[in-house]
Each structure stands twice: as C-alpha cells, then as structure tokens.
UniProtKB/TrEMBL annotation:
PANTHER family: INTEGRAL MEMBRANE PROTEIN-RELATED, MEMBRANE PROTEIN. This is ABC transporter permease. It comes from the Bacteria. Keywords: Membrane, Transmembrane, Transmembrane helix. The chain crosses the membrane at residues 20-38, 58-76, 97-123, 135-158, 165-185, 205-227.
C-alpha cells in the first residue's frame, strides 16, 4: 500500500499539469474574490459568495484531475510496471482514490487561503464569515471519495480514458444544471455537499446521518464492485 501511495504522490507532485491546476485555482480564486468584493451587497458574506462562484469551477477541476489520475495507467499502458509491485490489487485503486481526494481537498484549501489573502489585501478590516469548517471539509471528503469511487468503477468497467473523463465532466455539468430544480434533493448532490452538509445537520441530525451513511455505503459498494471487476481483468496483455 505504501509503495503504491508513494508512486501516486510522486506522480502528482512531479506532473506539470497538476501544478497548473493549483495555479489555475489561485488565479480563479483571486479574480472571483475581487469580482465578488466589488459586486456583493453584504460585505460580511464576501467569502461565502466567492466560494459559491468558485464551486462549479472546483468540481470541474476535480472531475478532470480524478479522471486523469485514475486513467493514467490505462492511457500509458504501465500496468506491467505498477501491479507487480503491489501485494494486493485492492491497494491500487484505494491509493488512487485517497490521493485524488487529498488533492481535491488541497485545491479547496488553496481556494480558502487565497480568498482570505486577497480580501485581507484589498479590503482590510472587514469582518469575514465563512462556512463551518468541520462540515465544510467533511462534505468535501465524502463527496470526493464517492466521486472517485464512481469514476474508478467507470474506468475499470470500460478501460478507456475518454469515457472516464467524459463521464466525470458530464456528471458534474449535469448536477450543476439541475441544482436549482429541487433544493431538498440537490442538497445531497456531490457538487453541493461541501456547502449543504452544515445546513443538513442544522435542520435535522437524523437526515444528515442518513445522508452521510448513504455516501459511505455507496462509496464502499462502488469500491467493492471496482475491485471485483479489477481482479478478473488480465492487465498484462
């Protein structure tokens, strides 16, 4: 497991496109935060409005990075080099899902820190509110785990990079488009979960626990399904 984690972490660190995603996050955050500060009517909600403007970009970035990280060995046909180093094939996708989730959370942290710095520089002295951080990051972790597990299932089932990236971006865009139709349902969407989990807990702890439990169960089922398919595949042809 450690060997696979090290491989995936170093792949992310030394891959130029992931550094560009972080740079893009910083630039997008700075631009959206300044735009929000100029146009928002309630000064105390600058950071909240800034993230709401950034949230769709966050999920598009995460959809791409997760799909790319999961499909890299299919694209480059490097399973002959990777799989023999792992004692258990389960470790392969478990590592990918963990690294993808951590990278998604890192993008979120980058946005939060950048927005704080920008507002602190251009509008010092303003009292700033933000989300409840424990639920903010718990919502991000649960939704990123679920989305990573889902895309793991897709790439294992089809074995094609284009199908995985198309599915990832398509699902995110679809969720964004239908978020406003029924707020009670869309609050449980992965794209909304980072901001809606706090509200779910405040409104009904039972509903929140059922929602969290559903996320965990679905993630486990998708991971188990992925591993069952993965174990049956001949990856060395």
């Amino acid at each position: 497991m450690i060997q696979q984690l090290k491989h995936d972490v170093f792949y992310v660190i030394y891959n130029r496109k992931y550094r560009l995603l972080i740079l893009l996050t910083i630039l997008l955050t700075a631009g959206l935060t300044i735009y929000t500060a100029v146009n928002v009517t309630v000064e105390e909600d600058i950071l909240l409005h800034s993230f709401e403007n950034f949230r769709q970009f966050f999920w598009l970035l995460c959809a791409y990075l997760i799909a790319d990280l999961l499909s890299t060995d299919y694209h480059s046909q490097t399973f002959k080099n990777i799989i023999p180093k792992s004692f258990n094939r389960n470790n392969y996708y478990l590592s990918k899902i963990m690294v993808a989730t951590i990278l998604g959370v890192f993008i979120l942290v980058t946005h939060v820190i950048t927005s704080w710095i920008v507002i602190g520089s251009v509008a010092a002295g303003i009292e700033l509110n933000y989300f409840n951080f424990p639920y903010f990051f718990l919502g991000a972790v649960l939704s990123l785990f679920l989305f990573s597990a889902l895309l793991s299932f897709v790439i294992t089932l089809f074995g094609k990079e284009t199908v995985t990236i198309s599915t990832a971006l398509g699902l995110v865009i679809l969720q964004i488009l239908v978020e406003g139709f029924d707020p009670a349902i869309s609050a449980h969407f992965p794209t909304m979960y980072v901001v809606s989990l706090d509200n779910l807990v405040s409104e009904s702890m039972l509903t929140a626990l059922i929602s969290i439990g559903s996320y965990i169960i679905c993630t486990l089922l998708l991971f188990i399904g992925t591993i069952k398919i993965f174990h049956k595949q001949d990856l060395f042809i």
